[in-house]
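Dear Dr. H.,

I hope your travels went smoothly. While you were away I took the liberty of generating a structure for the chain from your last submission, since the lab meeting agenda had it listed for discussion. I wanted you to have the full record in hand beforehand rather than looking at slides cold. The sequence, exactly as received, is reproduced here:
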Amino acid sequence: MDRVAQFGETWKLLLAEDRIVAKLAEPWPPGVSLPEGCKLENDSLITNQRSLVAASSVLCRKAKVSRALFAGCESFESSEQFRTAAARLLRGAEELCIVHNKNQAHALVRAFPNIRVLALPHDLCRHELGIHRHELVTADHSSPLMAQPSQLTHLLGNVESLGGVGLIFSKEAVAELLRMCPQVSNAIRRSVFSKAP
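The corresponding predicted structure, in token form, is as follows:
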């Protein structure tokens, strides 16, 4: 919950619907009007999914984001425009926190390759390859899955319905993350495979 608290009052963000909080690495440029549906609070840009998509070009030119929180938002797979706008806005961000996440972890890693910390508090997703496997896995398992390797070093989160411990991953999804995220591989191996018989 510490990851959520850095974006505002934890309980409000855990109950929020369609709220995006982007911490600015640099102040919003003076004299530049904020796009409709966006507001500034301290060092953060606050918006929602529709406004992010509508203002994407302005936000991507004027805002430099260090980290962001998406609370109660639709899946990035729900809209190509939403996924593209978020990826452009977070191109330089190092941390992404998604409250009530509905996205597959491997899809997030692929959409946001520069993110170093991915936090999924109150995760709503069972992470498995499923029907999207054809998009990620090639016949040659030694070939890269992305143009550049993921920078991810920390994957955090919990499933509230399970008492707030851990995330739910299939073995195949863990294997895929190990391939996509070379810097997080050792941490995942220690935590996932250390208790094997």
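Two observations you may find useful: The chain is about 30% helix and 20% strand. Residues 2-193 form one domain.

With kind regards,
E. W.
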